[in-house]
Write a structure and sequence with these properties.
Elements lengths: L1 H12 L4 E5 L4 E9 L3 E5 L9 E4 L3 E5 L7 H9 L5 E13 L10 H7 L1 E12 L4 E18 L3 E23 L4 E20 L1 E23 L2 E11 L1 E2 L3 E4 L5 H13 L3 E2 L2 E11 L1
Antiparallel strand pairs: 1-2, 1-5, 2-3, 3-4, 6-7, 6-16, 7-8, 8-9, 9-10, 10-11, 11-12, 11-14, 12-16, 13-15
Length: 284
């Protein structure tokens, strides 16, 4: 009996072992016999003699072949034709910085510099059509605020909210099972909105929307079982020229006309921003 088991094991190890890595991060040490569009068939030391086991291709992230002769054709087919359609769901948050170069009065520069730093939260879903390309949707919001009391005059404040609803193209152009990380480039277009509950002594609301875009590069650390920690540097931006002005109830009626003229004569609002964020990503 011991001789029979030894013969079976050696029969598997003559050409080395293959390793199937699942999308959950598990490893199956085996000998891959064949694969079709739905399943991959393999044998392990525990497989009953004369039988094979199978696994759905949707459950496989990659197969590391250790044989350069017997499985050469299978390896070429796997790398070039077999891919796994999977779904990414993620959420992140972190630092956001406005990059506009709008000219501001000297007395306003310190206030403006502090206003430019804020935070961002985002989420999205991507469907990966292959190991390197996918598409999806993304939503996010960036917030910026500041307040300053001018002695004897009143309050200067801004509370800016910028939302983004976009479509995304995902490119996974590098992966490494050994180092457990991947790099992903995302870019796309979307609808961007701008709202500011401001106060320049008197309350005034500003709003607008425009077509915007985004691009980002994320470093994704593989935690196993389909979970990743993505650290992302990204750029989002748009420019709003048609601003809707909503004076507050405390705004003097005689000054509203001048306010509307000032806003209509101003340059388009530049809302380009750079963000550094981290979060959690799940793939299944």
């Amino acid at each position: 009996m011991l001789i029979l088991i030894g013969v079976m094991y050696c029969g598997m190890d003559v050409h080395g072992q293959d390793v199937i890595i699942t999308i959950l991060g598990d490893s199956i040490h085996c000998k891959v016999d064949r694969a079709d569009e739905r399943f991959t068939y393999y044998r392990t030391t525990k497989t009953r003699r004369g039988a094979t086991e199978l696994i759905s291709n949707r459950e496989i992230r990659t197969i590391n072949y250790q044989v350069s002769t017997q499985n050469a054709k299978l390896r070429v087919k796997s790398d070039s034709e077999r891919f796994i359609k999977s779904v990414q769901i993620y959420a992140d948050g972190g630092f956001s910085r406005l990059l506009s170069n709008d000219e501001v009065p000297e007395f306003y520069r310190n206030y403006d510099n502090n206003l430019r730093s804020g935070y961002s939260v985002s989420g999205g879903v991507n469907i990966l059509f292959s190991n390197v390309i996918g598409a999806g949707v993304v939503i996010g919001q960036s917030s910026f605020s500041n307040i300053f009391n001018i002695t004897g005059v009143g309050t200067l404040s801004d509370d800016i909210k910028m939302a983004y609803y976009g479509v995304n193209l995902a490119l996974r152009f590098y992966t490494s099972e050994i180092q457990n990380f991947s790099l992903q480039f995302d870019l796309g277009l979307g609808l961007a909105t701008y709202e500011n509950d401001a106060k320049i002594i008197h309350s005034v609301g500003l709003s607008g929307q425009s077509l915007g875009g985004h691009a980002g590069l994320s470093f994704q650390l593989d935690l196993g079982h389909g979970f990743y920690i993505p650290a992302t540097a990204r750029f989002r931006g748009f420019s709003v020229g048609d601003i809707t002005v909503s004076p507050g109830e405390d705004y003097p009626v005689e000054e509203i006309h001048d306010l509307l003229l000032d806003v209509s004569d101003s340059e388009p609002f530049s809302m380009y921003r750079f963000e550094l964020v981290a979060g959690l990503l799940f793939t299944f």
